[in-house]
Amino acid sequence: MLPAMFANVLVDRKPGPAATPPAADCPECRSAVPGDSKFCPQCGHQLVVFTQCSRCGKNLAPNARFCPRCGLEAGTAPLKAACPACGADNLPGSVFCNECGEKM
Fold this sequence. Notes:
The protein is built from one helix and six strands, in the order H-E-E-E-E-E-E. The chain is mostly loops. It starts with a helix and ends in a 14-residue tail after the last strand.
C-alpha cells in the first residue's frame, strides 16, 4: 500500500482541479473504498496499517496492548512450532519441518 501512495509523489502535477486518489478494495470485506479513506465505509476496517499481530495477522491500532482477534499481547514474537520428529523450531503454520522435512 505504501509504494502506491509514494508513486504519485514522483509524477509531474499540473495546476488545476484536485485529483481524487484511485479507489482500492478493503482487505477485510473486499468492498470498494475511496483512495483517501483511513477506514472502510462498509465494515470499518482500518486501512492504515502500523503493526500486525504475529499470531493471526490482524491489524493492530497504534497503541494496542492486545490483539482484538486472538488476544495475543502486542509486540510478542511469533510463536514457534516444534517438529514432532526432530524437535527443531519452525514457523507457526508450517506444514513440513525445515530441518528434517517431516510433516508437522
